From TrEMBL:
Positions of the catalytic residues: Y150 (proton acceptor), Y160 (proton acceptor)
UniProt protein name: Enoyl-[acyl-carrier-protein] reductase [NADH]
Molecular functions (GO terms): enoyl-[acyl-carrier-protein] reductase (NADH) activity
Species of provenance: Rubinisphaera italica
The encoding gene: fabI_2
GO biological process terms on file: fatty acid biosynthetic process
Annotated catalysed reactions: a 2,3-saturated acyl-[ACP] + NAD(+) = a (2E)-enoyl-[ACP] + NADH + H(+)
Length: 269
């Protein structure tokens, strides 16, 4: 019997088969979870590219698929109404949503436009608050919310720029939500993965250089795999992690603990 046998939840943010949310979803499915999914609304209903891309991945096991723009209150209400209709109550929500306009993401933080800042923060951070406020109405006791972050929310990662500011706000939001929802029996956590080749990471500068740094500097002297991230995400959302809330769990081969290059790297240089 799988860890998620009989459990139901919602997944927001699978862009393609390289998404971290997809790596976690595969593990949830393998453990027996039933899930509803969302995708960005397609601009052209005659050519539903976003919907098709998601269906190609989850069509064998999804309970439902709906379009959802997290800036649209009606879209959000429709998703949670559908979840209540299909599931009654849910056990988990996976939030894997982040965005910044390319011009603002590529440039330095001091150059970010006012509109770009507001948009980036609304989609990357406020969206979690929107989901949490709705989820708590249908979450079972012991239910949980998991969001995805990155080390750039804690430390300066050149090239991560405004997204680092957004992730910092997201991580603080997770702690506040964990405190507020805890008395109701709900957990809220974050997973901070090392660099993986995703649609989001492709927009961040010097990604290849970053993976080489992880391979050289991390205590395990390697980068991580999507499967490792997927298993950790599944663990955090399972009853095995029932005592964990407000946590930001790093899956990065230990890179985040390093304050200077290891001796063997220094001597090699």
């Amino acid at each position: 019997m799988g860890l998620f046998e009989g459990k139901k939840g919602l997944v927001f943010g699978i862009a393609n088969d390289h998404s971290i949310a997809w790596a976690i979803t595969q593990q949830l499915h393998a453990e027996g979870a039933e899930m509803g999914f969302t995708h960005l609304p397609d601009k052209d209903p005659e050519r539903p590219r976003m919907e098709r891309r998601l269906r190609k991945l989850v069509d064998d096991f999804d309970k439902f698929i709906l379009p959802c723009d997290v800036q649209n209150e009606e879209n959000l209400d429709a998703v949670f109404a559908k979840a209540k209709e299909e599931f009654g109550e849910i056990d988990f929500v996976l939030h894997s949503i982040a965005y910044a306009p390319m011009d603002d993401l590529k440039g330095p933080v001091h150059n970010v436009s006012r509109d770009g800042f507001k948009l980036s923060m609304e989609i990357s951070c406020y969206s979690l608050i929107s989901l949490a406020s709705r989820a708590r109405k249908i979450l079972k006791p012991g239910g949980n919310i998991l969001s995805l972050t990155y080390l750039g929310g804690e430390k300066v990662i050149p090239g991560y720029n405004i997204m680092g500011v957004c992730k910092s706000a997201l991580e603080s939001t997770i702690e506040y939500l964990a405190n507020e929802l805890g008395p109701e029996g709900f957990r809220v956590n974050a997973l901070s993965a090392g660099p993986l080749k995703t649609l989001s990471s492709s927009a961040v500068g010097e990604f290849d250089q970053m993976t080489k740094l992880y391979e050289s500097f991390s205590p395990l002297r390697r980068n991580i795999t999507p499967e490792e991230v997927g298993k950790t995400g599944m663990f955090l959302m399972s009853d095995q992690a029932s005592g964990i809330s407000g946590e930001n769990l790093h899956v990065d081969a230990g890179y985040h603990i390093m304050g200077a290059p290891p001796h063997d790297v220094q001597s090699a240089n």
